[in-house]
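[Meeting: bench + compute handoff]

Bench side (C.D.) handed over the final construct sequence. Compute side (W.E.) agreed to return the predicted structure before the next meeting so the bench team could plan truncations. Sequence as handed over:
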Amino acid sequence: MKRLLIIFLSVVLIAVHTLSLTGCGNTDRGDNNALDDTIDNIGKPGEYNTELSEEDQYILDHYIEPTLDMNFYDNEVWVILKSAYDYLTELKFSDLKIVEEVSPISHIWYNLEEYTYEDGAVPFKEGDTQHMFKITLEEHSKEKVVDVCKLLQSLDMVLVADPNYIYDITLC
């Protein structure tokens, strides 16, 4: 049941950013193996060592690459890890060095809690699947958010990295 909920939430996250929730129709949103738990051992950017599960593939089938003309917060990125990394018990801030090349990380939000560098890592709850968390950058820049998304997408462990989209709901 929990796995279905995670899949549902992942699909909703991706589906919602592909549609404009205006109440009046759609609007164009733009064009469109067990491994160690550190970035050094899970593949360099562009290297893909992990097979995708059916759930992973379903999420990717609905993914749209973010562009600057989309409506999103200028310092927040949502990340979903591949299901092959469900075994991870924590995400170390040092694992996200690649993000720091673009902008320092202010904090990471996971499971209704906020973690900072002083915490050193984000503990994942045992039994959770398809870990999903939000990275908040110190710098406010839509360009940097798009760059961070592209960098994270290039890592083997990351299934999807998306901006935190802002949606308008208008009743007709």
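W.E. noted at the follow-up: The first strand starts at residue 72 and ends at 81. C.D. will use this when planning the next construct.
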